[in-house]
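can u pls check wat happens w/ magnesium ion
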Amino acid sequence: MTLPNKIMVVDDVPSILTFLKDILTEANYEVDTVGSGEHALARLNIFKPDLILLDNIMPGMSGYEVCRKIREDRTNDPVKIIMVSSKSKLKERLRGYETGVDDYIGKPFDENELLAKIHVFTRLKNVEDELVDLNNQLNEQVRIRTQQLLDAEKMATVGRLTAGIVHNLNNPLQIMMSISQLLAIRHPDISRITDLRKACDRMQGIIATILNTGKRENELVPVQIDLNEVLQDLVEMLKANHFFKYKIRTKMELRPLPLFRGIYAHFSQSFGNLINNAVDAMYYQNEGVLTIQSCVTDQLIQIKIADTGVGIDADKMDMIFDPFYTTKPLTVDDNRPTGTGLGLASCQEMIASYSGKIKVVSQIGKGTTIIVKLPIDAC
Ligand SMILES: Nc1ncnc2c1ncn2[C@@H]1O[C@H](COP(=O)(O)OP(=O)(O)OP(=O)(O)O)[C@@H](O)[C@H]1O
Ligand SMILES: [Mg+2]
């Protein structure tokens, strides 16, 4: 329900104040009456009117002076002012407009004409208020987006630095590998040396994955992609996350898929966001199961990402693909999941560019399954 518009009536004649208050209240406006210009200025911040009906000739400050003061001191206040005056010759009306009056009505006035003018100006004020709100929302979205771009730029720099560091780790690792191999030959009976060799092999695998993924993320040309490999790499990288490693059991059921022609980053980012969403949904549980399946059915590549998390309300289902829709805070001081609400919106756009579709099946308290379907003939 919308709130009634607020009207402040300023007049030094009590009977006019009472009359106007009655007809305006009858017309569903919230009304405040004041008997002088000085009193009106003092009450502006308290009552916050949408419109002021301002008598011109009053003892003390005149209507012109009150209007000029409001327009000079409150440049951002979009309040509408209608001057009500027995002096309504063209010259006086023009003077009123110069001081910032929006409209003029002569005394004695016709009640219906006054109500019609008030209706026009309160409607205009409401539209202006909506525009201001919209503008504020847009500014907020631009602020968030700019921050994301700055963060992305920072991440890109961090990424380049990381790639350099990871690359440099290869040299000492090669030395460790050679020595562990040598030790393993000389002391085949010491099982710890075999463990050391296995750890070195694993580190080499992680380094190769990071370097390869980073390289492919930057290639913005279509290539033949093994979607199963993308999923495996994403899960491999998630293992660095403490929560994921200890609280989430991952089931991978990947069937052979044809290579899919596309931009690598589109799939690593889309699947990455879907997997992150699934992991986030299980954050407040002691343990969760993430199931990732792939198969080919009816000429469609199907990727299913299922979680046993909080689920999605049926009435929110239509909103989750809207840009900026999120139930996660933007920033936190701890490790709780954060979000901007752009993940699914960009996922949908990227998958749709390959004529693909995303389907969501969810049950509150049970979990969510996201199914990505991609037509094989687009390969
Ligand atoms: N698997 C899921 N389980 C429960 N809710 C989900 C799941 N996936 C998405 N959602 C809901 O949809 C919202 C929008 O998801 P989306 O990926 O677009 O944004 P986000 O994850 O909040 O932020 P980000 O921009 O970082 O991805 C989430 O905030 C969450 O409420
Ligand atoms: Mg997300």
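The two ends are 52 Å apart (CA to CA).
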